[in-house]
Amino acid sequence: MTSFPIPVLGFAAYSGTGKTTLLEALLPKLTAKGLRIGVFKHAHHDFDIDQPGKDSHRLRKAGATQMLIASRNRHALMTETPEKEANFFKLLEQFDLDNLDFILVEGCKNLSFPKMELHREVIGKPWLHPHDDNIFAVASDSDIIESELQHVDINDLDAICALIENFIQGTSATKPATTTSCDSLSPAFLSVEQGLDKILSTLTPPKSTEQQSLFNARLKVIGQDIISPINVPAYCNSAMDGYALRGQDILDGLSSFEVVTEILAGNGYSAEIATGQAAKIMTGAPMPQGADTVIMREQSQQNGQSVSFSVNTKEFKVGQNVRQAGEDLAQNSVVFNQGTRITSPELGMLASLGINRVHNYPQLKVAVFSTGDEVQAPGETLNDHCIYDSNRFTVMAQLERLGCEVVDLGIIDDNKAALESTLLEASTQADAIISSGGVSVGDADFIKTVLNKIGQINFWRINMRPGRPLAFGHINETPFFGLPGNPVAVMVSFLAFVEPALRLMQGEKNWQPNKLKAETESKVFSRLGRTEFTRGIYHLDEFGQLKVRTTGKQGSGILRSMSEANCLIEIPPHVEMAKEGEMVTILPLEGRL
Ligand code: AMP
Ligand code: MG
User: Which stretches make up the MoaB/Mog domain (predicted)?
Assistant: First the structure.
């Protein structure tokens, strides 16, 4: 939801609080500030804006499922949805977003999107915000509110306006008494996209490059455009086994040619091919001077030193079956742009050009550690109520996939001084630091205390599953990623946030995860407003259709399912769930884990 192109703000209140009256008073104040406002109102299921007897009403009753009525001054689309109520997020898309600054929503208090709670004591209803994480501010006439949320007087329209304006600008007017982090005022949850945007906006691509021998440059990112020192092919050569000759001779109707030589790949012929002459030539052999065309051997009959051709003149072209010098790549043209990652084909291509050294961005050094009193290293005897540390290993392997150098800091035990010095040292040695565990909002874990002391770290709640908690910030300029504790959540959060961030820090340009569409064979559960990454197995069915099914139970601790899966099924925030037979987006995991 939060990836919606313009801000959407709801008013959550019990009926009788006076939502409409308040909105009616607020709208003129907001429009006076130049804001263009859309209002979404959720109404009783039998509401109708049409009137019996009107043409539009008659046509609807006669069977128009969608009825658009338009005039000079306004238009309205009425859509009948007798089967199922339309999806809130889909409905929002019907607004003409290019002509709005934000959307106010009245109603829909049970859906997940940023909201302001309206509360009046006389109504005698309980508070909504303790049960709705999406409420980021309260307007009430009560003095007693036990919350760190921003609070304004419900009768102070200017204060409410200011809150709304701040919300639209993505900032907050007032800070609560105690802030656990720089970002704890974020309205509602962050979407995956917002979380990633926030992370990427703080990072910069590398500046310096270094020179490496070709093979050592694998998995690194090219630091400056690579210019071809040669033509590819280097010389004009035959694309076929056959006879090289002057194409004009064929057009002139010549039928018999004198075979003057035979040219093998790796050899040349110094004389010129004259009219009426042909050279027997092999694929890849250099074209002799004078000749511009090759006729393939299958269309020839050679008799001693003479050859004739059965050529269909309609299909014949002067210059056919010849590869021109520089045809694939001209000398001095760009082979690979700066920002390209070097993998097997790039290595081969560079080698084919005779290039044996590459300017690439330096390898990233990433420090990794696990936290948690219950976490023990594999190989140790497991104590009661403890678990083995799997996160460090999945993270380290994912880092190696990306060509990073891994610094293994092990498991950090419950010792603030030790953690502090480890982190400070890592921040001077490594280009990034990754931890897992202990970062949930509301978690009183010692790691949070230390992170808050030595770095600028935000503790976020991402509207995704698996993987809700995420910490991100900097310790001495070094980016720090605090991943959740649950093993699957760690891997998925790595894919969603850490991988794109590291690729940017490595200097890679224009990277996007590979996404495909597949038909789902199983129901994929999600919730509106949340991005669901469900472990899936995709395959091609006998008709060539890409199909996907889930791996079954989706607990975020079930690491085995990550091994069974070959993709993640991504259900975006505006989709409630996917039913069997529907098309879903999948992210193949090959090459990423
Ligand atoms: P936390 O976010 O620290 O509350 O951790 C959430 C869950 O993940 C708990 O069940 C932890 O035991 C588990 N967990 C935390 N760290 C690790 C780890 N390094 N390896 C495996 N599981 C972990
Ligand atoms: Mg923990």
Answer: 367-504
Please name the helix (run of DSSP H) or strand (run of DSSP E) that holds residue 398, with its range, or none. helix 391-401
Q: How many beta carbons lie within 10 A of that of residue 436, not counting itself?
A: 29
Q: 373 versus 506: which is more confidently predicted?
A: 506
pLDDT band, residue 444 (cuts 50/70/90):
low
Q: Which residue stretches of 173-263 are H helix?
A: 192-201, 247-251
Q: How far apart are CA 90 and CA 449, in angstroms?
A: 41
Q: Which two tokens stand for residue 133?
A: 């994480």
C-beta 370 within 6 A of ligand 1:
yes
Q: Among all ligands shown, which has an atom nearest to the Cα of 484?
A: 1
pLDDT of residue 177: 30
> Measured between alpha carbons, how far is 586 from 537 in angstroms, rounded to an integer?
9
Does the predicted model carry a pTM greater than 0.90? no
Q: What is the CA radius of gyration of the chain?
A: 33
Q: pLDDT-derived band of residue 512, with 50, 70 and 90 as boundaries?
A: very high
| Burial degree of 590 (CB within 10 A; 0-12, 13-18, 19+) | exposed
| Distance in angstroms (rounded) separating the CA atoms of residues 435 and 490 | 9
- Whole-number pLDDT of residue 448: 82
Provide the terminal-to-terminal Cα distance of the chain, rounded to the nearest Å. 28
Q: Using an 8 Å Cβ cutoff, are 303 and 255 in contact?
A: no
Q: How many angstroms is it from 372 CA to the middle of ligand 1?
A: 7
User: Ligand 1 in contact with 436 (CB < 6 A)?
Assistant: yes
As a whole number, mean pLDDT of residues 464-493 equals 95
User: Which ligand lies nearest the alpha carbon of 391?
Assistant: 1
